[in-house]
Design brief:
With 149 residues, the chain is mainly alpha-helical. The protein is built from 6 helices and no strands.
């Protein structure tokens, strides 16, 4: 049964996001978010885990917005290949940067996890800073897309 649910979800995503740059932008953000949660799940210190999972959850709230932006961009400038549409290229750039900043956040969390396991003090501000960058990138993408319409 799960196979057919997944197949229906894939078809819906293809219908809404296409198979080009907007689908890849969405999927890249989702993979980066998944990586953040994978790293957080490996943390054994409860206090560190609770602080980092809060930040991860705040970034997860952005996923529906990223999907909406990618769907809107697909409606404005349909894409089924690797060519970035000129009209919405600024929005694509911002979404790509958001996914990259999110992946970097996962790396920062992984380094913090190693520090915590070694008994060294950690500073959550680095993760908060990266999370803020991701939020700003998504906001910038929304502004760029709005100005493209």
């Amino acid at each position: 049964m799960a196979f057919f649910s997944r197949l229906r979800a894939e078809r819906a995503a293809t219908r809404e996001l296409g198979e080009g740059v907007w689908r890849r932008a969405h999927d890249r953000f989702q993979r980066s978010l998944d990586r953040v949660f994978q790293v957080v799940e490996g943390i054994t210190d409860d206090q560190v885990y609770n602080e980092l999972v809060k930040e991860a959850n705040e970034m997860a709230v952005l996923l529906p917005t990223v999907r909406q932006l990618c769907c809107a961009a697909q409606r404005i400038t349909p894409s089924n290949d690797d060519t970035i549409p000129q009209l919405t290229s600024a929005a694509h750039r911002s979404l790509t940067k958001a996914a990259n900043d999110l992946a970097t956040t996962a790396q920062v969390i992984a380094m913090m996890r190693m520090q915590a396991e070694a008994g060294q003090p950690i500073d959550i501000e680095a993760v908060r800073h990266r999370a803020k960058l991701v939020e700003e990138d998504v906001s910038r993408a929304a502004q760029n897309l709005a100005s493209s319409e």
